[in-house]
Amino acid sequence: MVEAEKRLLANALLDISNQRFVLLSEACIPLFNFSTIYTHLMNSTKNFVETYDQPGPVGRGRYHPQMSPTIKLPQWRKGSQWFEMDRDLALEVVSDQTYFSVFKKHCKGSCYADEHFLPTFVSMKFEKRNTGRTLTWVDWSKGGPHPTRYYRSDISVEFLKKLRSESSCEYNGEKTSVCHLFARKFTPHALSRLLIFAPKVMQFNH
């Protein structure tokens, strides 16, 4: 998975006009219109790669001791695979071989590289340029290996408004309620209701 992400970034970097890079899935939706998202990303002074230290079997428990000394246990991080980064960081990710080779050799089995490589790499090398959070909203409150899936019946004006503003975070040193630009995990069946509400709630451009 990480190799695929690196290839996607490498291909996108070939176009010099590309300055910001966002990884989304087919189950993601935008929460704001294009101009709002574009402005938010282009004006940001930092990257959005989620990183956190999680004790237990699905966090530090996935670390392999043979990753040391390149990566030590206190440096091990976990985070969402859905990232947003600027061109400088994308170049660093694509060109790195030192840390990626350690992951290829030792992150196997129950160790999922797409949940650990970028969070660990960015935390170790570029922490000051990173917010430590993702721009993609997801609900893990029900537990289990997968986040909550949303169907047509789940979509309402109130729900979409909640996703857009029921948070608090920092953006360029200022407090803001716009913490997520995207959300997941939405099924194809939700599309019809999303198309009904999107122009009004999300203020999509016509």
From TrEMBL:
- Keywords associated with the record: Glycoprotein, Glycosyltransferase, Membrane, Transferase
Q: What InterPro entries does the record point to?
A: BC10-like, Glyco_trans_14
What is a single cellular component term in the Gene Ontology annotation?
Answer: membrane
One GO MF annotation is: glycosyltransferase activity
Q: Where in the cell is it found?
A: Membrane
Short name of one Pfam family:
Branch
Domain of life of the organism encoding this protein: Eukaryota
Describe its membrane topology: Single-pass type II membrane protein
Protein name (record): Core-2/I-branching beta-1,6-N-acetylglucosaminyltransferase family protein
Originating species = Solanum tuberosum
